[in-house]
Structure formats: structure tokens, C-alpha cells
Amino acid sequence: MGGGSSDNRRRPKAALFLLACGVAGVLPHGLGPVARLLPALGLAGLLGVYAVRTVFLRPQGAPAFTTAALEGSPPAVDVVVAARDEEAVIGRLVERVLRLRWPTEQLRLWVIDDGSEDRTPQRLADLQALYPQLRVLRRSRDAGGGKSGALNLVLQQLQGRWLLVLDADADLQPDLLERLIPYAESGGWAAVQLRKAEVNAEANWLTRAQAMEMAFDAFIQEGRLARGGVAELRGNGQLLRRDAVHAAGGFNEATITDDLDLSFRLLLAGQPVGVLWNPPVSEEAVLSLPALWRQRQRWAEGGLQRFLDYGVQLVSDRLNGAQKRDLAAFFVLQYVLPVMAVADLAGALLTGTPPGMWPFSVVALGLSGFSIAVGCGRSAEGPPLPKPTPLNIALAMGYLMHWFVVIPWVALKMALLPKNLVWAKTSHGAAEVEQEEDLLVGTLEENLDSDGIAPLAAEGP
pLDDT tens digits for 256-284? Predict the structure, then answer.
């Protein structure tokens, strides 16, 4: 399944994007000192006004991001996890999912073992003996299609109205489905993205910055949606209506970010995507700069790829004016600005003139810092958000500068090199493997009843 353009068409588009941004960043250096600043000042003014309206001046009567009561009987929900080499956390995830308060007969957990070479298959076999709600599918490591291929395999077998896609390290509150499903049903959403919260925010400065970034992202998405703009899926913690996914063609196996690609295909199909601040889905932030670099390259490539693949459709009459303006602003801020900034710096070095893009960059980073402060100051369930102190806000703003390196580098790679579709996952330490073994042994001992049969999870509402 899937869609999108072939890599042969994507590379020339990436090259054209890179060339256009490069020329736009260098050309002002041929102008006078004042004129050199005009392009950046114009962009800063236009996008600054849009950002202020979107983030801080949300209209009265904007969508209320709260849950509602469920009408009628609870619909069937399939929880889906694509796992590769997840022995450290897979048992813990199964325990968490099957603790969700939802009728047993209406809840199934599907794990796709995507060619694991560690002890994941054995752990899953042991867990299947305990929990009849657990279904396991297996693919060979070279089956192709990445995570999208794994999700498409299970999609063919699902029968529930909703599927909740999780990463293997996800953590969930027991009442999540009791709140999430009514919100999705009452709002008429085709998909809902939960706020992502980092459980290890205080491990080091890098994880703290990532926790603030996730709060910033959820806060911005709420603002975009409230202004008639676009909300996007983020992979872990995305609730999808099964018929909407089928209508969109399933998961795109020609992309490295199935969530971002599906967001655009749902948008073009007129299927709305919502966001929910509370309750969150918890996950682990990466612990080191090399791991962050690998992760963000993948995110950047998948994010830019979808604009290249669906660009013509995004400017068609399939979207309304507010959605087009929202996407244009996001595209310029997320992808155009970093490449132009690097080109501007190169032009300054070559011509001996001062950089001209700084007003645009300062406005973008300033608004980001203010949004981070507001987002981290909100009431939030799950792992505590870092306090929006001046030091933490400064840390988060400095941390966001990594996109000014990642985006230009990825754009250059996309223009010159063929796409490399690979699995990317958070690594888990040996200590966690030992904890996982203890958890599994304890579960085997505690959950067996007097007849040696493991009971199902408790009934929900």
C-alpha cells in the first residue's frame, strides 16, 4: 500500500528546493545594507503576525481540547505496535496496554515482530501464553516497507473501529481509552494525536530540552488547529479510525515517516486530525547527541519528503484557504528558514557583508521561546514538564537551533543521494533488560490462578 512519488522524481524536487532557498539566501548580499534586510524583515513581519494569531490570539469558540462522555457501547479498539529488537521493553508494554480500562472483548493488542534478532520473539511467546488478548505477527527482517510495511501487515487483519499505534517504549494511563475514544467520537475526528511526554526528562540537559520541545509541539498544534489550520500525527500515541486509514490507502511504504505522510493523505481526503493534551502518551527521549542526530535526520527527511510528494495537491482546491496558509507558514519556518539561514551565512562569508537573515531568525526563535514557556507552564498529566524558568527556556531555544543544521544537511542529502529506508528506534540499556526479565517472571508467578490459567484483564466500563 501507500503512495507518494518515486525517489527518481523526489531527488530533482529536493535539488530545486535547495537551489531556490540557496539563491534566496545569497542574493540579498548584492544589495545595500538596508535593502539586504528587507526580505528577512518582510518574512518576519508576515510570519510573526501569523504565529501570534495562531499561538496567542486563538479565536473564541475554538475547539475545546477536552474529553466527553461516550454515547452508546464502547467500540472495539486494536492497539498496534511494530517492534524490532525490543526485548528490553516489550513485556512492560504488554502489561501497560492490558491494564487499560476497557471491556476485554473490545480490546486487542497486536505486536508485529519485524525480524527481531534478540530475545523479543521468546518474550512475546511467553506473554501470549499469559494473555489471550495478545496477537503476534512476524515478518522477516528484509520484508521491506519499514515500519509502514509492518503496519500494513496487521491492518489487513484488524476488525475494530479504532487502532491505537504505539511505540514499544510507550507508557499509558489506565483511563486513557475512557477519555480518548469519547473525545475522538464526539469530535468527529478521523485521527487524534496524543501529546508526547518524556519519562526521562531529568536524565540530562538533552532529555530536558526534548521534553520542552514535545510540550511546545503539542501547544503549537492546538493553536494551528484552533485557527482552522492543520494538526499532524506523531507516530507514538496516534489513534486512527480504521476505515479512514483504508480510504487513504493504508500506510505509505515509500516513506521513512509513516505518521507524517498519513497526516497529509488524511488531510487531502478531508479526514480531520485532532490533538489531545491530556492524557499524554509517555516515551523515552534519546540520551545522546549522536542518537538525536540520527533521529532528527529521519524526521527531517520524512517531513520534507511529504511536501515534495504532495505539493501540487496541497495548493489545489482540496484544501481551504486557512489550511493552505497554515501549511505555507509551517513550511517556511520549518524548512525554508534553516536552509536560507545557512545560505545567508555562506553569502556573508563570500562577500564580506553582514548576514541579512537575522531578523527573521530572531523573530522565529523568540516566538518559539515564548511558546515553550506557555506550553511548559500548562497543567499537564503524566511525567512532570520542566519548569519554564529563564534557564530552561534559554536551553530549549538553544537546543532548537539544531534544526538549522539538520534541515540543510538533510536537504543536501536528499538532492544528491538515493533514499535509504531503514528502521530507527530508541535504544534501551542492559539494566532495563534485567528489569524486564524480573517483571515477566513476577507476572508469570502472580497472574496464574489456582488452575494455572492466566486470567484476562479486568472488565472496563
Answer: 899 999 999 999 999 999 999 999 999 99
- Mean pLDDT for the stretch of residues 448-461: 36
Is residue 368 within 8 Å of 54, Cβ to Cβ? no
Residues linked to residue 107 through DSSP beta bridges, in sequence order: 77
In a 13 Å sphere around the CA of 401, the CA atoms on its Cβ side amount to: 10
Residue 111 grid cell: 505486536
How many CB atoms are closer than 10 A to CB 57? 11
**Residue 263: C-alpha distances to residues 82, 319, 332, 402, 425 (Å):** 19, 13, 18, 24, 21
C-alpha cell read off for 305: 519528503
Q: Are 400 and 375 contacting, i.e. CB atoms less than 8 angstroms apart?
A: no
How wide is the angle at C-alpha 146 spanned by C-alphas 140 and 149, nearest 5°? Answer: 75
Cell of 329: 507558514
- What average pLDDT does the segment 1-27 reach? 78
List of residues 6+ apart from 113 with CB closer than 8 A: 83, 84, 120, 121, 124, 136, 137, 138, 139
For residue 429, what pLDDT band results from cuts at 50, 70 and 90? very low
pTM score:
0.84
Q: Which has the closest alpha carbon to 159: 97, 270, 246, 71?
A: 246
d(CA 2, CA 254): 7
Cell of 292: 538525536
Amino acid at 321: G
Calculate helix-pair angle for 390-400, 358-376, nearest 10 degrees: 130
Q: Check residues 3 and 308 and name the one with the higher pLDDT.
A: 308
pLDDT tens for each residue of 31-61? 888 888 888 888 888 877 877 777 776 665 4
Task: For residues 292 and 71, give the distance between their C-alpha atoms in angstroms, rounded to a whole number.
Answer: 43
Residue 18 contacts residue 412 (beta carbons within 8 Å) = yes
| 124: number of Cβ within 10 Å | 23
- Tell me the CA distances in angstroms from 23 to 126, 171, 330, 341, 409, one per residue in order: 59, 46, 20, 11, 16
Look over the chain and give the mean of its residue pLDDT values, rounded to a whole number: 85
- Residue ranges with strand state E in 1-76: none
